[in-house]
Design goal:
Length: about 350
């Protein structure tokens, strides 16, 4: 058999790489299709039912203690806001909404004798902070003898301190940073940049102040004074609340209510807090205030719907987050009780 005849009987090996690539591509496409379909189903459901807010089902998690009477531990962690935030396929309520719902739950329970407010927040929106403050006062009035103790963690500044002013006593960790009593309104002006690259603003308005803080033009002295007047009014509200809750004259409050931040020992010397300590210290303060030695400290946990559990590990967010401060990303400026040291 010559060489040519032998080659006719030898079948060349065919590569299977192409088949595996095709299979992998098909599986990936099927996975993407499944995710898209799940997302469409979930978005359809959440358009009709806000699964995060309509459910008021809370379970209690025991932190410590025992007995029939309860102290509810409510966490104010993060920026105080009423605005919703995206969480995967769901719209998650803002921190202020979460806190208010937990206060509502605590108020309905006759066994709840107090709230332990854990604060680790730089503050946030003026209105959101004020709503929480008023809601905490209402809780104390809802039943005779109900008390509130605030416990500061890393930061309890500006709006974080504002909401804590509703507490009967304030305890802070030795390493807590607090204070920053004041109001801030931030905006950016890109008129110079626009002039350099040829961007011109076209605004049709009904009055000369309607586009106040337009980033493509400089604010007039009259506009700046108008904004300062609003800031002054909101600042006056803050000073009044601190004065009333802490028993310090408004003149004394204004001496340190200039945006300054304080360590816990400094805050104690100013009368902004009552005690330096941790969780156990706060619990002991509650015992003294309520006259009760036997109670359990609990926190509320919200039950997740089935779809929420199914998608809790997913995060479909096509947005590109640039490394700019949040206040630069907002569509409009806002007055805030906020300590914002970034950049």
């Amino acid at each position: 058999m010559n060489q040519n005849t032998a080659e006719q009987f030898i079948k060349p090996k065919q590569s299977t790489l192409g088949h595996w690539v095709a299979i992998i591509i098909i599986l990936v496409l099927l996975g993407i299709s499944a995710l898209v379909n799940i997302g469409l189903i979930v978005m359809f459901i959440t358009q009709n039912i806000d699964s995060q807010e309509t459910s008021s089902k809370y379970t209690e998690e025991l932190i410590k203690g025992h007995g029939r009477k309860k102290v509810v531990c409510i966490e104010a962690f993060g920026v105080i806001s009423l605005s919703k935030a995206s969480s995967g396929f769901f719209q998650e309520p803002g921190l202020a909404t979460k806190i208010i719902k937990q206060i509502d739950e605590a108020e309905k329970d006759d066994n709840v004798i107090a709230i332990l407010l854990l604060v680790d927040s730089p503050g946030g929106g003026v209105t959101a902070s004020d709503i929480i403050y008023e809601r905490l006062l209402k809780f104390k009035k809802s039943k005779k003898g109900r008390k509130i103790v605030a416990l500061f963690r890393d930061v309890a500044a500006s709006g974080g301190y504002y909401i804590s002013a509703a507490a009967d006593k304030i305890v802070a960790h030795r390493t807590t940073i607090t204070g920053s009593i004041g109001v801030i309104l931030s905006s950016i002006n890109i008129k110079g940049l626009g002039d350099k690259i040829g961007i011109r603003d076209v605004t049709i308005k009904s009055g000369k102040y309607k586009d106040i803080l337009n980033p493509f033009r400089n604010a007039s002295p009259e506009e700046l004074q108008m904004l300062q007047n609003v800031v002054n009014d909101l600042y006056g509200r803050f000073v009044s609340i601190v004065s009333t809750s802490r028993g310090i004259s408004t003149n004394e409050v204004r001496k340190f209510a200039n945006g300054s931040i304080f360590s816990a020992p400094h805050a104690l010397s100013l009368g902004l807090i009552d005690e330096i300590g941790g969780f156990d210290s706060a619990v002991n303060v509650l015992k003294r205030l309520t006259g009760t030695e036997k109670f359990k400290v609990v926190r509320y946990k919200k039950s997740m719907a089935f779809l929420e559990m199914l998608l809790s590990g997913m995060s479909v967010n096509p947005k590109i987050n640039l490394p700019f401060p949040d206040r630069w990303k907002n569509q409009s400026p806002g007055f805030k009780y906020l300590w914002q040291p970034e950049l």
